[in-house]
């Protein structure tokens, strides 16, 4: 059975969420000795190598034509700023609070895609997003007792990520997806160097393996995310990013021995229900148009 572009986009977004959740497990395995920016650098360095190999194998452009540089720099800049903002917030605020505010990006992607990309907003998208977001709130259990600045940075991360993901969708047909990934990985790796050199820690064998896994899972997640937004409308596919909450719970339980409270099952059920709502509605609309 051949998948439609929308179905392919949904599948890739689910895979992206799974890979990024696995990356977070690898981050936990790396321990607290390795600085955050060193982890960011290693992730992007490995992504850069993976993208370079695939680009050379398929005879694609490394960094794109001159005409698309503003688009590529915009995607790379906002994506990198989003990562830095999120790491700052994670280091200075409660994780539950950060998780909620950083998960605003699907709403922003839907809004930006509707305004700037002229994507049509279906009648189930906003209710489904609200349902999924309610599930995330139940899972995370935020109190918002953190300081204002890190909370603002967490929300700012959602804004910049939303812009970056919208630009990913806009890049469709203008340059290859691997070129977008190569540009972003190179930009992020280079910008991470000053922070990494200033606080570099030589990893031991276990930490080195964890860093490699961070890079590999991060690379796979980035590839899946990039092509998900290129295959399907940004407003429709963004909601499936919430599946990362479910994958994180399961992987945390299986790999890290973390417990799953009853509220997490309730919140997870809401996320699944919201995703199914969008998927079933989308399938019905496709059948009507066929």
How would you describe what is shown here?
The structure is a single chain. This protein has 290 residues and is mainly α. The protein has one domain (5-289). Helix content is 77%, strand content 0%. The protein has twelve helices and no strands. Helix 4 (95-102) packs parallel to helix 7 (148-170), helix 7 (148-170) packs across helix 9 (205-231) and helix 11 crosses helix 12 (262-289). It starts with a helix and ends with a helix.
What order do the helices and strands come in, and which of them pair?
Layout: H1 5-29, H2 36-57, H3 69-92, H4 95-102, H5 105-116, H6 125-140, H7 148-170, H8 177-197, H9 205-231, H10 234-237, H11 243-256, H12 262-289
Spans of at least 5 consecutive residues whose pLDDT stays below 50 are none
Shape: globular
**How many beta-strand elements?**
0
What is the arithmetic mean of pLDDT? Answer: 89
Question: So how many helices?
Answer: 12
> N-to-C SSE series?
HHHHHHHHHHHH
Task: Tell me the β content.
Answer: under 5%
Give me some keywords for this one.
globular, mainly alpha
Offer a quick outline of the entry:
By secondary structure, the chain is mostly helical. The chain has one domain (5-289). It has twelve helices and no strands.
């Amino acid at each position: 059975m051949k998948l439609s572009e929308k179905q392919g986009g949904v599948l890739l977004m689910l895979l992206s969420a799974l890979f990024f959740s696995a990356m977070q497990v690898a981050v936990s395995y790396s321990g607290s000795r390795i600085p955050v920016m060193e982890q960011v650098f290693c992730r992007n360095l490995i992504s850069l190598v993976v993208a370079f190999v695939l680009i050379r194998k398929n005879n694609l452009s490394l960094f794109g034509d001159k005409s698309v540089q503003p688009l590529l720099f915009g995607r790379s800049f906002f994506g990198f700023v989003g990562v830095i903002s999120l790491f700052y917030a994670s280091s200075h605020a409660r994780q539950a609070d950060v998780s909620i505010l950083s998960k605003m990006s699907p709403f922003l992607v839907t809004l930006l895609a509707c305004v700037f990309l002229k994507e049509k907003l279906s009648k189930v998208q906003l209710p489904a997003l609200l349902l999924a977001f309610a599930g995330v709130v139940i899972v995370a259990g935020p109190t918002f007792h953190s300081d204002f600045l890190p909370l603002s940075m967490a929300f700012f991360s959602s804004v910049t990520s939303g812009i970056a993901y919208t630009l990913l969708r806009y890049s469709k047909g203008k340059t290859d997806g691997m070129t977008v990934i190569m540009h972003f990985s190179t930009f992020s790796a280079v910008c991470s160097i000053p922070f990494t050199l200033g606080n570099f820690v030589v990893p031991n064998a276990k930490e080195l393996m964890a860093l490699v896994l961070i890079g590999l899972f991060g690379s796979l997640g980035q590839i899946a995310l990039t092509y998900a937004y290129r295959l399907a409308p940004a407003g429709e596919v963004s909601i499936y990013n919430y599946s990362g909450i479910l994958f994180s719970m399961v992987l945390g339980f299986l790999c890290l021995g973390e417990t799953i409270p009853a509220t997490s099952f309730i919140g997870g059920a809401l996320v699944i229900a919201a995703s199914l709502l969008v998927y079933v509605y989308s399938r019905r609309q496709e059948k009507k148009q066929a």
